[in-house]
């Protein structure tokens, strides 16, 4: 071992670490406390444990059809979008490793160049309108289906697999698609897990495509719904409060509503985060090797 | 039936097509739909640049629009009075991101130096978390911390010092640039640190042992072994961030955090062209702005790459 005795430096580092952990986690803890407290009590008394513990705020939010629908749309876009992205990117990554593919170099360059090229907001907007993707769920799925960064990650991984495995299968008469599904896909699971994490989180977090081109309330995503609720004096908040008044209750205040919707948006990420951590670290490391 | 021996493909060939050609054609055919998608969503929109040269009429065919020539570009490069602050904001915010490039590297070195691996792991886990939250959620968290009436920070502050004014960096024009850069650092540093930790893990342990034998102290080992080990990675990220200087942190962050008090400090090229195009319906001017930005960005990328080649002998492509 290089390090032998604890120095002042180590002590300072440990203290800074603990402070950092608290600074990063405390806001989320406080939001959780706030969302689980009685709305009237917590707004008058500062408290770091729930006061008047209640799930009523969550019940109120989940009684709003808008939020439930938005949650479903976001979940669907995360699941469907990720599956399609995985199918497209794994296939493309495998095909471009094949030396026999005509125009292979040109195709790969076209893919990589998309990382540096951007048409800009308006040309993109006009093109999507022409494709008929305005107010269309496919707008959430198709533009990100073939993504250069994921293809590069998976391709790098495939190139590290010994080609003998694939050759023995093709000698056995397996076609290219059979090899892709039965051999390449299972061997690539570590990097596919990482890409799944990145893609699902991207999908869950996206909102500006929604803001630009989707105006149907049925297709609104949770992130965009949250954005609208966070705007000052949003009429949406009064509608949830009004629902509470109808039941002869004191309605939750605006802050409680905003915090509770934020929690509904954050909780899915918090729930999967510990499980996915291993995989995205893998993914970043592989990306880093490539530079 | 297949006899099971050897490369039995030739028997299956019909109409005399060479099996190799057939295999090639099949691969090409399989690739086509994916390339079509890629081109449709990444290259076809580039044709939209043509709208920068016409006075756009929504819904009308191009032939009915009046040709405007380079007039929109002339407005941009003559430096229209509205554009100057936008360009200033973009460059300042982009530049602040470029000069804070070493932050995740330093963070990674410190994490790597920590004696307690458990604590180091926890810090890493916690600091990476914000990367997976959208800017809408980051805004939500900041709102609950700093809002004037009910934010946690101000509630605490007023409890101990009732007369002190509220603290709200989201509504401070003075702190806008610094605060936005800080948010960008909070969101990305933990994630980028993983890249450096991977680079540090790749350094040969013998170098550390050799340095110790030569009498190098802890900080000398960091300076002479760890730092040179991560400089190549730092350079790659530096070149990329310079190439991205006109995007800075991206549309999302500045759009979400904008409000009347800070709008004149965080309106960047992307948010400005959104306002011009979508809110004010001036498609042609917004397209001209986006197109100029893309082309200048590519020039900057090549320049940064070229400089990297001269300075370090390495380049991205």
From TrEMBL, chain A:
GO terms for biological process: transmembrane transport. InterPro entries: MetI-like, MetI-like_sf. Its main location: membrane. It is found in: Cell membrane. The keyword Isomerase does not apply. The keyword RNA-binding does not apply. It is a multi-pass membrane protein. GO terms for cellular component: plasma membrane. Keywords: Cell membrane, Membrane, Transmembrane, Transmembrane helix, Transport. Residues 71-276 form the ABC transmembrane type-1 domain. CDD domains: TM_PBP2. It comes from the Bacteria. The chain crosses the membrane at residues 12-32, 70-96, 108-126, 138-158, 179-201, 256-276. This is Carbohydrate ABC transporter permease. It comes from Cohnella zeiphila.
Automatic annotation (TrEMBL), chain B:
Keywords: Cell membrane, Membrane, Transmembrane, Transmembrane helix, Transport. It is found in: Cell membrane. The keyword Signal does not apply. GO terms for cellular component: plasma membrane. GO terms for biological process: transmembrane transport. The chain crosses the membrane at residues 27-54, 91-111, 132-157, 177-201, 222-246, 283-307. It comes from the Bacteria. It holds the Pfam family BPD_transp_1. It is a multi-pass membrane protein. InterPro entries: MetI-like, MetI-like_sf, UgpAE/MalFG_permease. Residues 86-308 form the ABC transmembrane type-1 domain. Belongs to the binding-protein-dependent transport system permease family. This is Sugar ABC transporter permease.
């Amino acid at each position: 071992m290089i390090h032998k005795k604890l120095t002042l430096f180590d002590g300072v580092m440990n203290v800074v670490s603990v402070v950092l952990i608290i600074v990063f986690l405390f806001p989320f803890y406080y939001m959780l406390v706030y969302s689980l407290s009685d709305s009237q009590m917590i707004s008058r008394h500062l408290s770091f444990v729930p006061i008047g513990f209640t799930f009523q705020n969550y019940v109120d939010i989940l009684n709003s059809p808008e939020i439930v629908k938005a949650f479903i749309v976001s979940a669907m876009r995360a699941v469907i979008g990720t599956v399609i992205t995985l199918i497209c990117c794994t296939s493309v990554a495998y095909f471009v490793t094949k030396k026999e593919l005509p125009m292979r170099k040109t195709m790969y360059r076209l893919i990589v160049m998309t990382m540096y090229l951007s048409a800009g907001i308006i040309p993109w907007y006009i093109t999507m309108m022409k494709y008929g993707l305005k107010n269309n769920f496919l707008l959430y799925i198709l533009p990100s289906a073939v993504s250069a960064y994921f293809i590069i990650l998976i391709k790098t991984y495939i190139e590290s697999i010994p080609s003998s495995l694939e050759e023995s299968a093709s000698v056995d008469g397996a076609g290219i698609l059979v090899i892709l599904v039965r051999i390449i896909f299972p061997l690539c699971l570590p990097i596919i897990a990482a890409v799944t994490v990145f893609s699902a989180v991207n999908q869950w977090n996206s909102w500006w495509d929604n803001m630009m081109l989707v105006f149907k309330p049925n297709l609104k995503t949770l992130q965009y719904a949250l954005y609208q609720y966070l705007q000052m004096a949003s009429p949406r908040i009064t509608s949830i409060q009004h629902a509470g008044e109808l039941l002869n209750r004191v309605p939750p205040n605006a802050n409680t509503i905003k915090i509770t919707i934020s929690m509904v948006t954050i909780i899915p990420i918090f729930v999967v985060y510990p499980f996915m951590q291993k995989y995205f670290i893998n993914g970043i490391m592989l990306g880093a090797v490539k530079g | 039936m297949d006899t099971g021996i050897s490369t039995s493909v030739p028997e299956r060939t019909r109409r005399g097509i060479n099996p190799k050609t057939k295999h090639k054609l099949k691969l090409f055919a399989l690739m086509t739909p994916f390339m079509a998608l890629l081109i449709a969503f990444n290259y076809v929109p580039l044709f939209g640049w043509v709208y920068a040269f016409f006075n756009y009429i929504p819904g009308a065919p191009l032939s009915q629009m009046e040709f405007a020539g380079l007039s929109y570009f002339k407005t941009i490069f003559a430096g229209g009075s509205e554009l100057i602050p936008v360009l200033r904001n973009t460059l300042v915010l982009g530049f602040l991101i470029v000069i804070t490039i070493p932050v995740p590297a330093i963070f990674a070195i410190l994490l790597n130096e920590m004696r307690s691996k458990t604590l180091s792991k926890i810090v890493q886990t916690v600091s990476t978390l914000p990367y997976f939250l959208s800017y809408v959620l980051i805004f939500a968290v900041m709102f609950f911390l700093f809002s004037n009436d009910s934010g946690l920070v101000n509630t605490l502050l007023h409890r101990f010092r009732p007369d002190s004014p509220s603290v709200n960096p989201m509504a401070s024009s003075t702190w806008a640039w610094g605060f936005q850069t800080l948010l960008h650092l909070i969101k990305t540093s933990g994630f980028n640190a993983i890249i450096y930790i991977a680079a540090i893990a790749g350094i040969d342990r013998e170098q550390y042992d050799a340095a110790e034998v030569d009498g190098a102290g802890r900080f000398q080992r960091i300076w002479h072994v760890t730092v040179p080990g991560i400089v190549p990675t730092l350079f790659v990220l530096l070149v990329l961030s310079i190439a991205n200087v006109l995007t800075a942190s991206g549309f999302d962050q500045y759009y979400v955090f904008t409000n009347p008090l800070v709008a004149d400090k965080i309106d960047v090229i992307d948010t400005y062209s959104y306002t011009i195009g979508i809110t004010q319906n001036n498609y042609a001017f917004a397209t001209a702005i986006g197109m100029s930005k893309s082309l200048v960005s590519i020039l900057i990328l090549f320049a940064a790459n070229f400089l990297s080649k001269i300075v370090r002998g390495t380049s991205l492509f």
